[in-house]
Protein 1
Amino acid sequence: MKYKSPKDFAKKYLEPEVKRGDTLEQILAGKGGCALGGFDLNIGGYAVLMHGSENREDWESIKLKRNEIAVTEFNNKECFEKFKVDDLFNEIVSGEEQETLFSS
């Protein structure tokens, strides 16, 4: 699957649960993160940046707030972009509302 940006990847990751009708609280309670062949993200907990090294001493752990999602790999390149889950949730919901308005 092609993603336009780290933010797009994060939104696409959350989208199925939002469209199913899960609340923000349910999503935060049930999600941890994913690794999809060249794309990684974490919700809450810690994001780990490996800085291209196999040596754990070179790795960097970054503490995330419960409501933060961090993309740490995008298109096979290490990165660090952080977003608020509630902002992405609201964007997805707003997009659905727009689709409903224009399809009526």
Note: DSSP finds three helices and six strands in the chain.
Protein 2
Amino acid sequence: MTADVTRYRAQVTLQEELTTNTKNLKERLHNNHDNLLATTHRLVYARVPMHMFQRIFADESPFESQHGSHPYRRPHPVTSFQGRKP
């Protein structure tokens, strides 16, 4: 009986802790969503060049050179090499 009471109290404490953590995470998620929308709005109206805008929303750095391989780019299709020697 004593073990069950101890287990019950531990579970109640854990439940309260998890509920508090859930509320905090929901608040952080809501704040982050609001900040993301505000930042997106600023970027849309910042009049950045289109290639930089597209790279920002493709999770690429807009300031890095586009030359060379990049892990987020798909390989060029084989047909793009027509007329060139590999």
Note: The chain has two helices and no strands.
Protein 3
Amino acid sequence: MDPNQNQVQNINQPTPQQSPKFLLPLLVLFVLLFISALVIFFAKQTSPVTTSGRAVSPPTHSPISIITKPAGSEEEQELNAIDLGDIDKDLQDIQTDVDQL
């Protein structure tokens, strides 16, 4: 037989697919790792435990006190000096625009 003809015959013949034997166990292993990672992730979100293993107690703080500056402070004077124009007229213009929609 001609060697070229053998090559043509070999190309035209389908080759049997060989599936690796380790593919299924590897796939099962990855699925188990993924599921266990999800369980650990969600378990850590719901449990109030610190890294030392002790339970976290809710914080006990006194009410927040607001520290204010005296009425004549420099910042307040600057804010009072800002000219905002006629705010009521601007709001009425916006209301008419909304009503037109």
Note: Helices lie at 3-12, 23-46, 74-81, 87-100.
Protein 4
Amino acid sequence: MTSKLTVARKYDLIDRHDVMLALSRASAALALLDELTNSGHDGGWFNDGRTDKGLAALGTTRKEARDWTIDMAVNALAAALSEARDAFREQIIGGPKAVA
């Protein structure tokens, strides 16, 4: 019986690097923001009757839910970019350094 050896390919290592993981999260947050703000229709995901019923049950409006989601995506984007910056610094200089 022969066994197959698995060799990690370069792109596998790169895709799993801390910088790339953080950039992937940033990309997801940006895609969400794009969908919510530039989708060519007012409200995007928040424009159907089913959503209105669910939001009414929560005691919120479509605009409030959309604004909250945009706010969360902006915060996620900022956090992911900060993580990418910190991971890059860690890789290059061994950790975050104070800038005077």
Note: The mean pLDDT is 78.
